[in-house]
Amino acid sequence: SVSPDKGGGPFVISDVVFSHPMFVLLVFAKEDSQSNGFCWACEKANFRCSTARTPESALECFMEKHHDLVIIDHRHSRHFDAEALYVFSFLRPDREEASVMPLINAGFNRRYVENANMMACYNELLQLEHGEVRAQFKLRAGNAIFTALEQSQEAIEITSEDQVIQYVNPAYESVMGYQRGELIGKEIKEVPKSEKNKPDLLETINSCIRKGKEWQGIYYAKKKNGESIQQNVKITPVIGQGGSQRRHSSMARIHSMTIEAPITKVINIINAAQESSPMPVAEALDRVLEILRTTELYSPQLGTKDEDPHTNDLVGGLMTDGLRRLSGNEYILSTKQAHHIPSHLATPLSLNDIPPRIAATMENEDSWDFDIVNLEAATMKRPLTYLGMKIFSRFGVCEFLNCPEATMRSWLQVIEANYHSSNSYHNSSHAADVLHATAYFLCKERVKQSLDPIDEVAALIAATVHDVDHPGRTNSFLCNAGSELAILYNDTAVLESHHAALAFQITTRDDKCNIFKNMERNEYRTLRQAIIDMVLATEMTKHFEHVNKFVNSINKPLAALEENGNRILVKRMLIKCADISNPCRPLELCIEWAGRISEEYFAQTDEEKRQGLPVVMPVFDRNTCSIPKSQISFIDYFITDMFDAWDAFADLPNLMQHLDNNFKYWKGLDDRKLHSLRPPPE
């Protein structure tokens, strides 16, 4: 209550934003019992307090600290001129005026009659804090809240306790098609309802609100144009304030889109299932939705780097595009003119002209245990041309492409010439190995049933060219070194993009080796797209995406797998498995390939150190590396799950047996703390 004015007294202004603890400014010309009473009251209430003696110092202090309460002494008018003191204009109060209205009009909102009693001062401050100051604070905060509501992309509706619409935000107008003026003041029951809701849904919602509980679930709303849209709605009762807030999730806006992404459809199905699910199921589905809404849906999360440095280095080296370090170091690919057939390969070989020892080496090329290393030695490091001729002949590739055998031979020779024989791993022997695995997989019954002849031809060609002109360095290395290729391909799938592009450049540049020359245009475009897609699928950054998409599809019936989208998944999985099938080869071949890839990684680490580049795979230091550990990590992280899925699809028990044997071999070496490819001689 405000006591009547009996000749002037201190006045209180509380027109500033409240913050806790409250900050009080006492404007008193001189210290006396009244000012001391307010000082003591502030101390008792744990309020911060400043004192000013002159109008100038009061204004300066307030402008600096923005107090929550300003108490001004007007008992001695000769000391203060209210107009001169305060920042907003008001009439100087007449001390004989009985009414408080002139004071209110002047900007004051409370009058305190002189009373130096400390408890009186204390009680006055408490009433001000819990009344007007907090009310002002809420009012100011309310303005900020409504600004946020106006800017929110969620559709929001606020109603009173008796369900009269008090507010809708612009997002609501956009989603529902109404203008604000058409809704405010109307009862909710006056707004048309969708017939798609269950009959008792509104009663369920109202029951929750009456009990002061929040309701969340699927609700069908009817737009102004009569269309029903499914919304994920949350309704929150505002206890004690006589109203509720209804938030329509942005899912409502997604539903109104004409183009709906598959992941959106999945989320909508789960949202709908939640509506009629018991609480444990609904909560589990909530967790599912959280996972689905993350950006990295296919990449498993690794633990700390200390847990397995080999796995972390493999992931860092194979699944990233480098550290993007800007430096003066440039890694330039060989400038040799590799796009012409070398003279020693100029005379095409006929399938009938293959020397007997090479032909004998290839007799069992349709077996998984075929020894590519023997063929490499017999052909003087030209296994791709010879094996390619035999496999392409077996699959009738020339007939499909309508190209002469001589053109195919020339093409195989020029492609092989563009592999770097100086690379210990990524050379034409690796390409021949991947071609062999691809041909083997294409002969598996379920694979044959899933693919068309054009898919088979695309797979064989993609396997042949998938690493052409590989420099023996990873994508991460090329990006860190600022190589010409990394710049050309924007640090994204650098090598894989180069392999695919160069393969078509080489092929189409010279009619003598253009195996696509006689193809019909549309068929060529389809084949080209399939080859590019398969080569790009060998990039390891998308390893888990390809594997998981395949796993999610293999349980479908065969008819569904024959659809184009699933054929693509099968082809990607096929070339990925062929590309990194070394751990599934017989033990001696597995050991040979492990030694070659390790040497290539060692050479990269050596060069990174020489050039001062980031070392992307520190465990591949030739002086300290444990090859068994690196193989165990590679098998655990990349191979096991992928080949389990591929085996479930294509039925490959022999490969899985080799994989098991090879893993045990590496584990045995590691258990003996050996770092080498083989145990020491007895």
Automatic annotation (TrEMBL):
Classification via PROSITE patterns: PAS, PDEASE_I_1, PDEASE_I_2
Gene Ontology MF terms: 3',5'-cyclic-AMP phosphodiesterase activity; metal ion binding
Pathway the protein acts in: Purine metabolism; 3',5'-cyclic AMP degradation; AMP from 3',5'-cyclic AMP: step 1/1
Stored CDD domains: HDc, PAS
Cofactor: a divalent metal cation
EC assignment: 3.1.4.-
Chain residues that bind AMP: H426, N427, S428, S429, H430, D467, D579, Q631
Keywords per UniProt: cAMP, Hydrolase, Metal-binding, Phosphoprotein
Active-site residues, as the UniProt record annotates them: H426 (proton donor)
PDEase domain mapped to chain residues: 350-673
One Pfam short name: PDEase_I
Alphabetical GO biological process terms: cellular response to epidermal growth factor stimulus; positive regulation of ERK1 and ERK2 cascade; signal transduction
Subunit note: Interacts with RAF1. The interaction promotes RAF1 activity.
NCBIfam families: sensory_box (TIGR00229)
Similarity comment: family membership: Belongs to the cyclic nucleotide phosphodiesterase family. PDE8 subfamily.
Its job: Hydrolyzes the second messenger cAMP, which is a key regulator of many important physiological processes. May be involved in maintaining basal levels of the cyclic nucleotide and/or in the cAMP regulation of germ cell development. Binding to RAF1 reduces RAF1 'Ser-259' inhibitory-phosphorylation and stimulates RAF1-dependent EGF-activated ERK-signaling. Protects against cell death induced by hydrogen peroxide and staurosporine.
Name by which UniProt lists this protein: Phosphodiesterase
Record organism: Gasterosteus aculeatus aculeatus
Taxonomic path: Eukaryota, Metazoa, Chordata, Craniata, Vertebrata
